[in-house]
Amino acid sequence: MLLLQLLINGLVTGSALGIIAISFSLAYSTTRIFHVAHAGIYTLAGYVAYALEKSGAPDIVGLLAAMAICAVAGALIQSELYARLAQRRASHLAVLIASLGLLAVIQNFLASVFTPNILPFGSAWRGRTLSFGGVTLTEVQIATLVICLAVFPCSLWFTRRTVLGKQIRAVASNPFLAEITALRPQRTFVIVMAIASAMVAIPGALVAFDFGVQPYDGTTVLLTATIAVIAGGIGSLTGAFLMAMLISVLQNLSLLVISGEWSVGVTFLIFLVFMLFRPRGLFTRR
């Protein structure tokens, strides 16, 4: 039963990590910016939901508000920071350093306002559990699994079937050609960053409902999601999501044989294996 419990827990965690991975993949494959501050947006979503929960708002309102506020924050980051750096022809290293600096600003701002301690939610459904087949999950975990598994196919449909999704793919494929064909890449970059930020707010709020909020949690989560993006293949949303699920399941199953503090090493082992034998990623097309 322990094996099954760890497997299901891995799927729950992996579904949330998968949405983080595909949101980061969408932003990176389109803008070519290693958006490290994405971890700060993830953390911000949890604090927005926490603040609204403390004011008496339902958790669904907190989730929707977190998505809206994070979308605005993502759009502002692209238009007021990355776009201005691009106008000044800043190097990729300079943009990366700027993103790291912004992450530090977000994390320390949240720590100064809410304290750096872990702050749990007081929602009643947070502690309620359901058991089936020897497996026990909280209602928050079930909601996380269901919502994130629903968001994944919706994101694929959006990028492949909608006009805006096709424009985003065109800009990601060839920004120069998109510029001369009046697709306005800079405008598309802002839209993509807003969408990616709204997407990462979903697991950001849901995970916070379960484990509480802490200003510096997002960095490790984004690092793991980035490994999933690289191993799955840059630009492949399916690859990023599936690799995130696989990594999370392996991390949880590794608890059967090693201590929890070493389970993160499984993630880096997977990364090293892919870098050695499949550096282009598992789902990358020629």
Automatic annotation (TrEMBL):
It comes from the Bacteria. It is a multi-pass membrane protein. One of its GO terms (molecular function) is transmembrane transporter activity. It is found in: Cell membrane. The chain crosses the membrane at residues 6-26, 33-52, 64-83, 95-120, 140-159, 189-209, 221-246, 253-277. The keyword Transferase does not apply. One of its GO terms (biological process) is amino acid transport. GO terms for cellular component: plasma membrane. Keywords: Amino-acid transport, Cell membrane, Membrane, Transmembrane, Transmembrane helix, Transport. InterPro entries: ABC_transp_permease, BCAA_transport_permease. PANTHER family: AMINO ACID ABC TRANSPORTER PERMEASE PROTEIN, BRANCHED-CHAIN AMINO ACID TRANSPORT SYSTEM PERMEASE PROTEIN LIVH. Belongs to the binding-protein-dependent transport system permease family. LivHM subfamily. This is Branched-chain amino acid ABC transporter permease.
